[in-house]
Every structure is written in C-alpha cells, then in structure tokens.
Amino acid sequence: MYICDFHREQCWLRWSSLSQHGVRNVRDELLELLRKTARAVTVEAFQDALQQLQSSGNYQKNAALQSWFEKTWLPHKQVSVS
After folding, report:
1. Total number of domains in the chain
2. Is residue 81 part of a domain?
3. Who contacts 58 (Cβ-Cβ below 8 Å, separation ≥6)?
4. Is the pLDDT of residue 81 over 80?
C-alpha cells in the first residue's frame, strides 16, 4: 500500500491533536521525529531516525503512541534511496 506524503502528514496531525493520545503538549517534537523517519533517503538514515524516535522519552512513556506507530506506520515503511 502506498500512502502519499500529504495524507500521511494529515493523519499524523489529526492523531497527535487528540488529547486522548497524550501527545498534544509534545506534538511538535513528535512530528519532527516522525518526519525524520518518513524523509529518510537511506536505510541507515531510516534506522537512525527510528532509533531516535523510539528512544525518546515521550515515545518510551506512551504506550498508545508506541502501539499506533508500530501497528499503523512501521509496517508500511519505505525508504526511497536517491
């Protein structure tokens, strides 16, 4: 399945804006980390961005975020090498 950048970003913005997910107050930081994973152009850059996201305190403390990312987005990772 291919998800265009616009719709991926729209989904991230909507999900992160809902108070029940517990990330609204750290939304900008989270979106920056998510965007790094999506914009990685090499496997190494993707792995580095993924490690930064998963080792962040906000990610580590939020089971809803972990579940959402790992079940919804991680299975569809695609690194476009230029």
Report:
1. 1
2. no
3. 23, 26, 29, 30, 65
4. no
